[in-house]
Amino acid sequence: MFDSLQDRLQSAFKNLRGKGRLSEADIDATAREIRLALLDADVAVPVVRAFVGRIKERASGEEVSAALNPAQQVIKIVNEELIGILGGETRRIRFAKTPPTVIMLAGLQGAGKTTLAGKLARWLKEQGNSPLLVAADLQRPNAVNQLQVVGERAGVTVFAPEPGSTGAGDGGTEGTRSSGDPVQVARDGVAEARRSLHDVVIVDTAGRLGVDAELMQQASDIRDAVQPDEVLFVIDAMIGQDAVQVAQAFAEGVDFTGVVLSKLDGDARGGAALSIREVTGRPIMFASTGEQLTDFEVFHPDRMASRILDMGDMLTLIEQAEKVYDAEQAEKDAARLMGGQFTLADFLQQMEAMAKMGSMTKLMGMLPGMGQFKEQLANFDEREVDKLKAIIRSMTPAERDNPKIIDGSRRKRISAGSGTTVQDVNQLVTRFFEASKMMQQMAKGGGMPGMPGAMP
Ligand code: GDP
């Protein structure tokens, strides 16, 4: 899902990495690459234009120029804007105050409605609901049978017309084309749900191979007859650019309250996902990601954006860092560090700030690309950090400010106080001196250490 879009966006950001300041040319180049990446992923042109415009505007503003790390800030902006075009908040089903809640499915033939009906029913059942599936797709040969099979697999009751018994039949035979009036079937299905105390009704409707007036009329008629609480428009994400036109036609012809993207598991370039919300103003509510009943997810715009950006949970990490990291203090620390004034007290403070962000293992795990270091992460001993903190806490303020005064007897006292060995204390002090020396050399040589830090 979104593989090539992911790669393209990654390379768009690559040029920014390590830059302390972004020039107008940097921002233009990145914006151009993002534009091409989105167009290649089949995102609708007006959506691309608006999206890139917002990115450029924000990337040229204060929030980036004042950032500690401009590249990261740009990624953060792209992520926020992506979440925006994907719909912002997760949109959940709106249940009726008085059951049953009626959910109607609409979309082209082959979009994945019947499959989705089963997935949705199974998921609702898991949530503690008691759904009824209604087979109002009387157009496609075998659609009723298919829904019955799906319903059985999901363990959900299916309401289907008796062949040849309802309304104006069209002469079809069982197993090929079901007879009857789909509007009447839908109406009867809802009445049946009320009678048998199902709290949700999912009405599967007919599609056509293309958008046509008859199809829209039938869907509208069903809509009017059952007054659904939700009309879900199911769209095959693999149809690319066409998705937008089809969605617009359904928005005008039937209107819908939410979108389901199906076949997101295919090699879809993802354009439909990124365009549909902007173009129709309707939220994407679910994603269908395979032929199995379990291949179904609630659509979370924020998680989808993270996936598109291949960011792991980088954003949580950046946000957490922003919360505990005081930029002004960091600058002071950096200045002191350059002057060789960085002390063990500063070091302790830094470790405590890191601790506020979470465990070291968890922090590292949020970095993208850390999957390959799984084993090392699992072996990382959090207690090492605790030990360092305990040693520094057992020092007097004078010792923290000037570790040079820590002689043999002080080391003994510190180790006893912190429950560590004299060797542990020696190691910390030695490493601290080495790190300070290195920092001062870097300062003299003009090299600017990114973050003040004297990790031993
Ligand atoms: P309907 O005509 O809208 O009811 O569409 P169907 O539910 O019959 O789906 C059409 C075809 O797409 C079937 O072969 C399904 O197995 C397949 N399909 C549906 N949803 C998905 C999906 O999320 N991923 C994949 N790979 N195939 C799907």
What is this entry, summarized?
Its EC number is 3.6.5.4. By secondary structure, the protein is of the alpha/beta class.
List keywords for this structure.
456 residues, alpha/beta, Four Helix Bundle (Hemerythrin (Met), subunit A), Rossmann fold, 434 Repressor (Amino-terminal Domain), 3 domains, 8-stranded mixed sheet, binds guanosine-5'-diphosphate, Signal_recog_particl_SRP54_hlx, EC 3.6.5.4, cytoplasm
List strands and helices in order, with pairings.
Blueprint: H1 3-14, H2 24-40, H3 45-59, H4 62-65, H5 70-85, E1 101-106, H6 113-126, E2 131-136, H7 143-154, E3 157-159, H8 182-195, E4 200-205, H9 213-226, E5 230-236, H10 242-253, E6 258-262, H11 271-280, E7 284-288, E8 296-298, H12 301-309, H13 314-324, H14 327-338, H15 344-357, H16 360-365, H17 374-379, H18 382-393, H19 397-401, H20 408-418, H21 422-444
Parallel strand pairs: 1-4, 1-5, 2-3, 2-4, 5-6, 6-7
Antiparallel strand pairs: 7-8
Helix pairs in contact: 1-2, 2-3, 3-5, 5-12, 6-7, 8-9, 10-11, 13-15, 15-18, 18-20, 20-21
